[in-house]
Amino acid sequence: MSTPALHEIEDEQSPRSPQSPRALLPSLAVLAFVMFASYAGVGQVLLPNQLAIIDEHNKVVNLATITGASFIFTLLTQPIIGAFSDRTRSKMGRRAPWIMIGGAVGGLLLVGMGSMTSVLWVGVFWIVIQVSLNAVQGPFTAVVPDRYPKSRRGVASAMFGIGTALGLTIGVVAGGQLAANLGIAYALFGGLVLLATLAFVLVNRDYSSRSVTHEPLRWRTFIAAFWVSPRRHPDFAWAFVARFFFILGYFMVLFFQLYLLTDYIELSLPQANQTIGLLALASLATSLISIGVSGVWSDRIGRRKVFIYAASVLIALGFAVPVFLPTVAGMILMSAISGIGFGLYTACDTALMTEVLPKDGASAGKDLGILNIATNLPQALSTVAGGVLISLLGYQALFVFGIIAVLIAIVALMPIKSVR
Description:
- The protein has about 425 residues and is mostly helical.
- The chain is built from 15 helices and no strands.
- The radius of gyration is 20 Å and the shape is globular.
């Protein structure tokens, strides 16, 4: 059976990918769950605990330095690996080899990270782990435009969002429960990454891409392709800016939750490890509801932007609560309100991004990787800028900055014309 030409990708399946099997939707949720559970469990709980144990006095500076450095190293990982996956010729298809390699390296290093006892080696391991997991995430994200037409990408995005929300929550809860034994905690996350990436590839087999032909690789052309002109593709540029500010504002608060509980709410470290799980559960309960409703609703009415507008407003309202109510109850209420907003966002953001790709997604791996810079770069900046804000203005400044940033995302989305 012939496959559609590359320029027909807009409402057909990728020329090198089979139609989406029934297992793909839950598989998207499962792998997203494991990936984001690892990001959250390690980044928000295990890593801060490990650094506090190694050097309590310099924990904020060390956390900001290591996470900032790791995101800088991963900044171009997704677009570069995504571009190579677009051109990959293998019996397993274009995306599968990169998912497997990244999962193997990241999973094994996570297993070993629990034995690190110096700030330097913790930093080195975390940087390589982040690069490896991003090498999974770039090709993994490209599976959605590969296998789903635009009319079904809201549902696919919602499944990705459900996995993300569950992962962010369960990862933090598991990290908090296992923080007293870092070796076991790191081994658990590492083992899950190994199993989930392998299972995703085996269950959702792709067509062989061995027979696919590409123009000869010319490095100058290859590198030049990473520049997407804002003048020629303004919707792509505005989507990048909107995601950048939304992620910057949201993660400015999220990354410092443990230290917010210990230094702003004034809990002990053991109390904070337990409480951070409650915050995650409060966020999960509300975000799952909003994801389930908004993903299907978005596909039905053919709109994406209005859900992200609502998401930004809700997160801004949530972040305002601890400013006026600096208690555990205030933090839980913040998590519940912002959880609704984050659920709306994750259900529709991926779908929106796939609909602003140049050339109808002909280079989806590369272009989605470029858009994912708008996820990695603000996360890098959020830890560094957050550390500076805490040092100069105190913890309340995190909430104020987060509110401003997510509201800027609304302004950036407004000029987009190709997506309603």
